[in-house]
Amino acid sequence: MPLNALIIKSAKPKDKKYRLSDSGGLYMEVTPSGGKLWRMKYRFLKKEKLLSFGAFPIVTLKEARLYRDEAKSLLSKGIDPSVVKKELKESKLAASKNSFKAVTQEWISKNSTKWSSSNTNNVSKRLEQHVFPHIGNKSISTITAPDLLTVINRIEKTGTIYTAHKTLQNCGQVFRYAMATARCTTDPTTALKGALPPTQPKHHASITDPKKIGALLRAINGYEGNFITQCALKLAPLVFVRPGELRHAEWQEVDIEKAEWRIPAEKMKMKAVHIVPLSKQAIAILEDIYTVTGHGKYVFPSVRTNTRPMSENTVNAGLRRLGYTKEEITGHGFRSMASTLLNEQGWHWDAIERQLAHAERNSIRAAYNYAEHLPERIKMMQHYADYLDGLANGADIVSINKNRKT
C-alpha cells in the first residue's frame, strides 16, 4: 500500500529501524531515534544499490516521489543515479571552492601578512559589504563584466565614488589571482575602465601658514583635556607619522638614549622598518608621558584600558575640542604640514620622503634602506622642532636652512 500523510504521521520509533514501503522502490526508514529517512532501492548492472533523498519533513512525500521518478528516468537510459548524484555533489563542492567569495578569502589570507591590519580590514569589509551579497556565491569563472558593473553601480548610486573605485580595484586583484591559480581565464574589470566617473583627489586638511601653525601649537600647549591626548597632540607635529602609527606606538620601540623611535615593519603601510629620529622636544614629551603610561605597553593607551591603544579618533577629537574643524586640520594633516615646510626650507627631497615613509616603488629596496639619509634626517628633525618652537613662541618667521641646496 502506497504511503500517505496519515501513515507517515502515525509512524513511531521502535527498538530497531524499520521500513514503510511506498512504490517503485521508494520507502521510508524509521530509526530508533525517531528519524524518518527517504530511501530508494534499485538494481544497476545486476547489483542492488541504494539512494538517499533526505529526511522527512524537510523532504515531503511528493518531493521524494519526484526524486524517485528522476532516478528511474536515468535508469531507463542506462545511467546509474548514484553516480549522477555523486558527480553533482562534487560539482557543487568545486563550485563553492571556486566561488568569488572563496577565492577572495584565499587571496586576502595570502596577502594579509604583507598588509597592515587596517588595510586588511578595509579590503575585507569593502568586499563583504558591497560584493559578497550579490555575486559572492557565484563561480568566479562565470562572472561577467555586466554582472560586476551592476554591483559597482549600486555603490556609485550611494554617492561614494571613491568606494566604488576601490571596490572595483580590489575585484580586479581577486580576478587576477584567480587567473594565476587557474580558476578563471579573464578579468572582467578590464572591460569596465571608464565606467565610473573619476574621483576627486582626497587631501588631508592641513595648516601650512607659519602664523597659523604658531597659533595651533600654542593652542595645543594650552590643551586642558586628557593629559595623554595632549601629549599625543604635542608629539604629532614633531614626528609627523601616520595617525595609526602614532597611536600604536609602544614603549619597547622607543630608545631615549639613541633618541630614536623604530617602528616595526608590520606596523608600517609599506611593510618596512621606519626610524623616527627624536628631537630634544620630542624626548621631553615622551619623558613626561612615561611617568603616566611607562608601566604599560602603549605610549598612548586607551582611556578605558592600557591593554589597547588610544582610539583612532582621539587626536582628531582633541583638535575639534581646540576649535579646529576637520576642514582646517586633521591628525594626518601634520604630515602635509611638515612636507610643505621642509620642502620650502630646502631640505633634501629624498630625506623628506624617507622620513615621511612614503611609498617606495621597489619594496625590496624599501626593506633594506630604512636608514637611508639618516644623518640628514636627524639634523632635519631637530631643526624642524626648533622651528616649530619658534613659531609657538611667536618668533619672527624665518626659513631654517634657507640656503640649503636641494
UniProtKB/TrEMBL annotation:
Q: What molecular function terms (GO) are annotated for this protein?
A: DNA binding
Matching SUPFAM superfamilies, A to Z?
A: DNA breaking-rejoining enzymes (SSF56349)
Is the keyword DNA-binding in the record?
A: yes
Q: Which GO terms describe its biological process?
A: DNA integration; DNA recombination
Q: Where is the Core-binding (CB) domain?
A: 98-179
- Residue ranges occupied by any Tyr recombinase domain in the UniProt entry: 203-385
Protein family membership:
Belongs to the 'phage' integrase family.
Q: What protein name does the entry list?
A: Integrase
What species is given as this protein's source?
Cycloclasticus pugetii
